[in-house]
Specification:
2 copies of one chain form a homodimer. By secondary structure, chain A is an alpha/beta fold. Chain A is built from 13 helices and 11 strands. The first copy, chain A, folds into 2 domains: 202 residues, Aldolase class I (TIM Barrel, Alpha-Beta Barrel), CATH 3.20.20.70; 104 residues, no CATH class. In chain A, the strands form 2 sheets. In chain A, strands 1-9-8-6-5-4-3-2 form an 8-stranded parallel beta sheet. In chain A, strands 7-11-10 form a 3-stranded antiparallel beta sheet, with no helix packed on it.
C-alpha cells in the first residue's frame, strides 16, 4: 500500500475532513501549510463563492489541498412527504411566529456537476474528494485528467470494493463514530454501519489502494491506533471545530465543549440524510430519524428558518450541531498546532 | 494505571470474553494455561453444572481465571407483553408444528445471587466479572473478601465512573462493535452506545483503574490499536468461536465463516435485551428490535423451541448467532495458538 504522503505529496498523513457549513478556505490553508491535507467543502458553495475560496487557498499555500463535493442523485420532489414534514414542524413555526408560506422549498445542495468540473479545471486542485459514492465515470476521468487524485468514502467493505473498482485512488473508511453525514451509498440500511475499529481492518484487507481511517479519531493516540489497524492515514473532523480558523458558530462551539457532546446521534432531521450530531431539542422531540423528512437534501429548507429564529434567541435547539462520538480532541488552538499534536508532537 | 498482567497475575493482557452458550471450561482452561485470562460464563449454569465446570478449570490450570455472571434485576412478568410476543411468533409455531401451550414461560437466566456466591466461596476464583452493572454492595464485598478482583463492563463514560465508584478493580470498555449482550445498565438508550475507538480514550481519561478495550478487536493489529488508545488490555470474544475448545454449534460456525457475518445487528429478539448477532430470518422478518419482546430474560423461552426445531432441520433461522462486527479474526485453530497470534506472535 502506497503511503498517502507520497500519493498526495504531503508530509503528515492526516486529512482535515471537509465540513460544509463550519469551515472554508482558512482552515484548509492552515492545515495544508502545516503539512497535512486541508480540505475545502464545496457542497454549499455557489460558483462565485467556490472561485473566491479557491483563489484564497492558492494564494495562501502552494502545498496540496483537497476540494470536496457531494455526489448524490437529486431526488424527485414528493409533495406529500414535503407536506407531512411541514406539518411535523408546524408547532415550531407557530412558536417562533414563522409564516410557513414564506419558506421556500428547494434543493439546498447541488451535487458535483459539469459546471463545477469546468470551474475546477482552471485550478486543477491536486486532490478531489467525494461523499456518497463517485460522480459519473466521465466526470471522474476528467478530474483525473489534470493529475488529481480522487478520494471517496466507504462505510462498508462492499462500498470500499466498489470505490476501488470505479477509480478511487484512496478510500476513506468512515466508522460510525464520525460526525456529519454518513457516506453510505450502496445501502441505506444504517444497521450495516460499523465502528472504526471493526471497519478499517476489513477494508484494508479488501482493497489495494491506501485506506484513510475516519471516525472517533481525536488525538495522537487515536491516530496511532488507526495506523496500527493498517490505515495509511487518518481523516479528522470534529477536533478542528474549536480552532479559530473554523467558522463554527458560537453556539456550536459551546455545545462541543460541554457535556452535551457526550451524546450524539445519527439524525436525518436537518437534511434528509443520516448525519451525526449532538442531541438537541428538535432531535429529542421528533426523534433522530423521521420518516417524514424529505429525501436529501430536500429536508433542509423547512428547518432553516427555525434554526435562524432559534439562533437569534441564542439557542441551538434547531441547529445541526455536527459532532463525532469523540469531541474530547476539540481544542481552541490554531489548526497548525492541533495538526502537530495529532501527529504526536 | 496498573497493568492487568500485574492486577490479575497473567502474562498476556488479553481476556477471553465470557460467552454463555458457546463455550465452557475447555476454552477458559486453554486460554488461561497459555497466559491469558480465560473466562467461564455462568449465566446459563445451574449450581451442579457450575461446580463441575469449576472443578474442570481448577484441575486443568493453576493459573488465574475469571468467572462471569449477569447481574440484572429480574423483571416482573408482564402477561400482556408475553401474549403479544407469543402472537408475534405464532406463525412460526404453526410453520414448525409447535403447540404454543407446550412452551413453558420462565426466567431462562438467573442473576448473581447469594447461592452462587456461597458456591464460589469454596473455589475462590481469582477474578469475577459481571455484566449489566454490579450486584449489591454486600455481595461485591464478599467476593473481594477472598482476594478476587472484580470486573464489569461500561458502555459509556457515565457507566465507567459508576463502576469505579462502586468497587470495580478494572473496567471493560465495550464498544458497539462487540458481539453478544450490550453491557449498558444506566441507560437503555442504544443511541448512547459508542464505537470502541471513541469510547476507550474517553473512559481511560475518566477513571483511574485499568481499562480493558472490547469490541471489534480480532487480531494483533486490533490489540495494538487498543493499547495505543490507552487501554491496559483487551477482551476478545468472537475470534475464539471457531476454536475447537469452543462449543459453538456447527450452524453458528458456518455463519461466522461466511459472508453473512458481514452484517450483524443489535437485536432484542432472543432474550429481551439488546445483543449483537448475525442477521438471520427471524431478525429480517420481525426487525431486530421488537417492542413486544418481554423484558430480559423473559423473551428467551418463547424463542427456544423455534430454535430447536429449525436447527433440527439444519437451519439457523431462529438461532442467536452472536458475533461482533469483525468476524475476520475467527480461526479454526487451538485457543492457545490464537492467543499467541493475538499477542503478536
Amino acid at each position: 500500500m502506497k503511503s498517502i504522503q507520497e500519493l498526495f505529496g504531503i508530509e503528515i498523513p492526516i486529512v482535515q475532513a471537509p465540513m460544509a457549513g463550519v469551515q472554508g478556505s482558512a482552515l484548509a490553508v492552515a492545515v495544508s501549510q502545516a503539512g497535512g491535507l486541508g480540505s475545502l467543502p464545496c457542497a454549499l458553495l455557489g460558483q462565485e463563492a467556490m472561485r473566491a475560496e479557491l483563489e484564497t487557498i492558492t494564494q495562501g499555500t502552494r502545498r496540496p489541498y483537497n476540494v470536496n463535493f457531494f455526489c448524490h442523485v437529486p431526488p424527485q420532489p414528493d409533495p406529500a412527504r414535503e407536506a407531512a414534514w411541514r406539518a411535523a414542524l408546524a408547532p415550531y413555526y407557530a412558536e417562533f411566529g414563522i409564516d410557513p408560506a414564506s419558506i421556500p422549498s428547494g434543493p439546498g445542495r447541488e451535487p458535483f456537476s459539469e459546471a463545477a468540473l469546468e470551474l475546477l479545471e482552471a485550478w486543477r486542485p491536486p486532490v478531489v474528494s467525494f461523499h456518497f459514492g463517485l460522480p459519473a465515470a466521465g466526470l471522474v476521468a476528467r478530474v483525473k485528467a489534470w493529475g488529481a487524485k480522487v478520494l471517496s468514502t466507504a462505510t462498508t467493505v462492499e462500498e470500499a470494493c466498489w470505490l476501488e473498482a470505479n477509480g478511487a485512488d484512496a478510500i476513506i473508511a468512515q466508522g460510525l463514530e464520525a460526525g456529519g453525514h454518513r457516506g453510505n451509498f450502496l445501502s441505506d440500511d444504517q444497521s450495516r454501519q460499523m465502528g472504526t475499529l471493526a471497519l478499517v481492518p476489513q477494508v484494508v484487507r479488501a482493497v489495494r489502494v491506501p485506506v484513510i481511517a475516519a471516525g472517533g479519531i481525536a488525538d495522537a493516540q487515536g491516530v496511532a491506533a488507526a495506523l496500527a489497524l493498517g490505515a495509511a492515514g487518518v481523516q479528522v473532523g470534529t477536533a478542528w471545530l474549536l480552532c479559530p480558523e473554523a467558522t463554527t458558530s458560537a453556539l456550536h462551539r459551546v455545545a462541543l465543549a460541554s457535556e452535551a457532546a457526550r451524546h450524539t446521534v445519527v439524525t436525518n432531521l436537518f437534511t434528509g440524510r443520516p448525519a451525526r450530531g449532538i442531541v438537541n431539542r428538535v432531535i429529542r422531540e421528533l426523534g433522530p430519524i423521521s420518516p417524514s423528512a424529505p429525501a436529501f437534501p430536500l429536508a433542509t429548507s423547512a428547518m432553516l428558518p427555525l434554526r435562524a429564529a432559534a439562533e437569534a434567541r441564542g439557542s441551538g435547539d434547531f441547529s445541526s450541531l455536527w459532532s463525532g462520538q469523540n469531541a474530547t480532541g476539540c481544542r481552541a488552538i490554531g489548526a497548525a498546532a492541533l495538526l502537530r499534536e495529532l501527529a504526536g508532537g
